[in-house]
Amino acid sequence: MLRALTLRRSLQSLHHHNHLKPHISTAIPQNPLNPLSPARACSSLSSPSASSSASELRKYLGYTALVLFSAAATYYSFPFPENAKHKKAQIFRYAPLPEELHTVSNWSGTHEVQTRVFHQPETLEELEKVVKDAHEKKTRIRPVGSGLSPNGIGLSRAGMVNLALMDKVLEVDKEKKRVRVQAGIRVQELVDGIKEHGLTLQNFASIREQQIGGILQVGAHGTGAKLPPMDEQVISMKLVTPAKGTIEISKEKDPELFYLARCGLGGLGVVAEVTIQCVERQELVEHTSVSNMEEIKKNHKKLLSENKHVKYLYIPYSDTVVVVTCNPVSKWKGPPKFKPKYSSDEAIQHVRDLYNECLQKCSVVPVKNDVDINELSFTELRDKLLALDPLDKDHVVKVNQAEAEFWRKSEGYRVGWSDEILGFDCGGQQWVSETCFPVGTLSKPSLKDLEYIEDVKQLIEKNKVPAPAPIEQRWTACTKSPMSPASSTKDDDIFSWVGIIMYLPTTDARQRKEITEEFFHYRRLTQVQLWDKYSAYEHWAKIEVPKDKEELASLQARLRKRFPVDAYNKARKELDPSRILSNNKLEKLFPLSDTI
Length: 596
Hints:
Elements: E1 6-9, H1 12-20, H2 38-44, H3 50-77, E2 102-105, E3 112-115, E4 118-119, H4 124-137, E5 142-143, E6 160-161, E7 169-173, E8 178-182, H5 187-194, E9 199-200, H6 212-217, E10 234-241, E11 245-250, H7 255-262, E12 270-277, E13 279-280, E14 283-292, H8 293-306, E15 309-314, E16 320-328, H9 344-362, H10 378-388, H11 393-408, E17 412-417, H12 418-421, E18 430-441, H13 448-462, E19 471-477, E20 493-503, H14 509-534, E21 537-538, H15 549-562, H16 565-575, H17 584-589
Parallel strand pairs: 4-6, 5-6
Antiparallel strand pairs: 1-2, 2-3, 7-8, 8-12, 9-13, 10-11, 10-12, 14-16, 14-17, 15-16, 15-19, 18-20, 18-21, 19-20
Helix pairs in contact: 2-3, 9-10, 9-11, 10-11, 13-14
């Protein structure tokens, strides 16, 4: 039912045995004071009584055999799970497991919680009852969407509420181009539901699986310097709050709370319904070309101002810049006539060749049931390539070079509806950090966006970071939602969004841990040397809470400089005084004096 949200019931006692089983050692200690030690047994062989010595030896050999047999029987009766071979042994801790204990993880598998409470109301009335009951009992029910946020911002061990079953289009106003929907509807479902009316959303993020409530609450965005983040498309909202019940807010009804709640991080109420300003459905022409930094600097202002949608994909350890623009199909000229130089199969063949070459060098024997590489997409093939040695810089550079060549052979045009064209295959599981910072206006761009990229690439090369491609750069206009990283009171301000990435192409626990450590080293380099310099702030769905107390205090102070934290916390106290909609991440980012 939930495609991107992982729910699985625990296996009770079996699960308990598998994950908490202590390591069993069968070695006998070499302690001369131990009557069972081999040293003591050997010394008894020099006894004057031969029969006594033989008897003692047989006894100790019997003890040894018994210990070995018991250890082997225990091991094969309660084997370690496959993913436990790299995990450290833990002290046995007993905790009774309830029948309905669920494990919930985000899509990338980077954040996971176990919870006893997972509500999925089907109607507004059911949702109101869930919130009311939780408020009276002071039990947490954190709103969670599709589980796509890289930082797991919607997860809570104490309990969650998910609106996947509240997924209907409630009303369509063709004249005003507005739609009213339940907040649990996914982006793709919404688009499919209104296309018969000739409508679509103004902009899209990279993927279509997000629930509308979630994508709005974290300030998600598409790309286009004339187009704001998605929260700016919201006309009105219906919030189910713990303290004040269900309230409707808009620009006319409580505008201060409305703007605050549009990007409210799920902390001010459960978004139940949303009215969205849409646009006419239209076909777009996507143009993909390969450039370099020198050419980009010459044409940057023109690219931003003359294209409805534009993004750059940078390839680390190279000067390659992939430029992707999207514009409405001309009513007069129609779609461009263009014959690609390479077929899609020819464009990817060199990547397949590199994979086979690397397999031979690594002496890796392909698994029998492994997928035929000829059936893999480029991003799937890239994952398999990186999995061979994800932290070896030279290997990653080779993969990046193959990606640059892939894009050169993929130059050309593509025509389709906006919801088909504006998507982007982000690849497999990954760690990602995305920052947003001001870059002047459309008429007078500051070029800070290009300077930021040059600084990132220098950090990568200087520190020999095994950074895979791409570094993705997008732009948006500003929004009036004060909790958005792209908020501004000046209507003509534009913002750049830059994402750095490390893929998790393996299920090996130790390797994933090593990649995670390397990613956070990579992220910290940009944080320490670039964020303050460019006034950059992380996307709410990608911000990670530091474990170090001093770093956390520094982050909290930094957020206060950019966002109206006091106003946000004041609204939280009024609407959710017991903070049943909060979680550990929200509490640490926006601490209050009293706690739930």
